[in-house]
Specification:
With 466 residues, the chain is an alpha/beta fold. It is 40% helix and 9% strand. β2 and β3 form a beta hairpin.
Length: 466
């Protein structure tokens, strides 16, 4: 759908102001000055014809009848004070509406990527309609699950479980807007209605605590920062499902750089995976730092991923392995500080070596937290016995190993390791996906974090974690 030109807020204000002046200075206004001392209930100050002139490009969903029906549910709106005050309030409300909806052109928020942001998982009633169901709707773009709950309670509608009603019923679309205008102060100290009618507003409500940014998050490009903020919310939801709200852990990322992964590196899939995992570290790790390894024939530790350096880290360090030089050595290409010479990493699969490397790091750098290893590989496992030996030995260590298969290749012992007996605790999780780019963030985080809570409980009970 092509976007048509829409009136600006200033244009709507100017139009409404002109109409107000006409109404106030015309014969009807003069007649009003000579009414008896007990005049009838004031009429709604905006006629249908005036409404049509204000919003010539509006979505037909936003009807004048819906506005009038909603206004009747709030009898003080645009009917309080002098005629001037009543018309001023109507003008201010409709200007606000125009600003939120592009002149009543849109009835829902347009950026679908932000929809899951508006589920506040700290609310006791949660988001029963789905984490992505509380996006902006209606004449004032009502958003957040707590606003749908409060508006629904006031109006006698179950908007928490059926938020779609705001985009399906014109009267409800207007009523939620008038609910906000008449009862909510937003970031200010009084409601819109009180501000326009000169009534003293309530004492300022304490602002809800801001969701804390992870160190370095403010340095990210705007689009990457927005993705990270959204993904942190989704990670929090996945953790809440496992009863792990507020848990902290050290997060380690391991990336397969073997030759068979070259296509996934070339398409940017591995870089996108690493960016998605940064959100896990940002939420779980107290400083948002993530240790990282790459591996193929040999493992290599990468520089730590600090959140504020994420774009440059992805560019410099997410690279596929290379064949070593046979015979006369070629001069290596210049590398940035900390970059691994990928010729030393090679192209074969030797998972057991990087597992041993990570285990040694955890032993040498103890922390009073559990460690979550996020291990991505496209399979081709042929060292099952060696891998099993390493992971069995790791069962007594405060580390959970979450393996993710990128494709449906052969994963050897990883596919059935969690069924093997004889370990203190089940310290390994595994799942594989055909195309990780097609797996939505909420599903990916749910699967990634589904077994970690079970291991935490078992490890504490067994004394692996203290």
């Amino acid at each position: 759908m092509s976007r048509r030109a829409t009136p600006t807020v200033a244009a709507v204000l100017a139009a409404v102001t002109g109409l107000v002046l006409t109404l106030l200075t015309g014969p009807a206004a003069a007649h009003d000055r000579h009414r008896p001392h007990h005049p009838p209930k004031p009429a709604f100050p905006v006629s249908e014809r005036q409404f049509e002139r204000m919003f010539p490009e509006r979505d037909p969903f936003f009807t004048y009848e819906g506005l009038r029906e909603a206004a009747d549910a709030f009898p003080a709106f645009a009917r309080t004070g002098s005629p001037v005050v009543r018309h001023q309030e109507a003008a201010a409300f409709l200007a606000n509406v125009s600003h939120e909806t592009g002149g009543l052109f849109y009835k829902v928020a347009q950026n679908e990527e932000t929809y899951p942001i508006f589920c506040d998982t700290t609310q006791p009633y949660g988001c029963p309609a789905g984490t992505d169901a509380y996006y902006g709707r209606g004449a004032i773009m009502l958003s957040w699950n707590f606003n749908y709950k409060a508006a629904g309670d006031h109006l006698g509608l179950d908007l928490l479980n059926n938020p779609w009603l705001v985009e399906e019923d014109p009267a409800v679309a207007w009523m939620t807007a008038l609910w906000y205008w008449n009862t909510q102060s937003g970031p200010g100290t009084m409601t819109g209605h009180d501000a326009m009618t000169g009534r003293p507003g309530p004492a300022p409500r304490p602002a809800p605590p801001a969701r804390p940014q992870t160190r370095g998050e403010e340095l990210l490009p705007a689009d990457m920062g927005e993705r990270l903020s959204l993904r942190k919310q989704q990670v929090a939801t996945s953790l809440r499902k496992g009863g792990l709200t507020g848990v902290t852990a050290r997060v380690i990322l391991v990336l397969d750089a073997s030759g068979s992964m070259s296509g996934l590196y070339a398409k940017g899939t591995v870089a996108r995976v690493a960016e998605r995992m940064a959100a896990v570290a940002a939420l779980l790790d107290d400083d948002g730092t993530m240790q990282a390894w790459t591996f193929a024939t040999r493992p290599a530790r990468l520089p730590d991923l600090h959140l504020g350096e994420l774009p440059e880290w992805l560019r410099l360090h997410v690279r596929v392995g290379q064949l070593g030089v046979i015979g006369r050595k070629k001069r290596p290409k210049s590398r940035a500080d900390g970059q691994v010479d990928m010729r030393t990493v090679g192209i074969q699969n030797e998972e057991q070596k990087v597992i041993a490397d990570v285990r040694a790091y955890v032993r040498d750098h103890p922390v009073p937290l559990p460690t979550l290893v996020l291990f991505f590989s496209d399979g081709g496992v042929y060292r099952s016995k060696e891998i099993e030996r390493e992971l069995r030995a790791a069962a007594d260590e405060p580390v959970f190993w979450q393996f993710v298969g990128l494709g449906r290749s052969h994963y050897g012992v990883l596919e059935y390791f969690d069924t093997l007996p004889g370990r203190t605790v089940d310290n390994v999780g595994f799942f594989a996906v055909d195309d990780v780019d097609q797996v939505a963030d909420p599903e990916l985080y749910d699967r990634l974090l589904s077994e970690f809570p079970l291991w935490l409980g078992a490890a504490r009970e067994a004394g692996v974690l203290r």
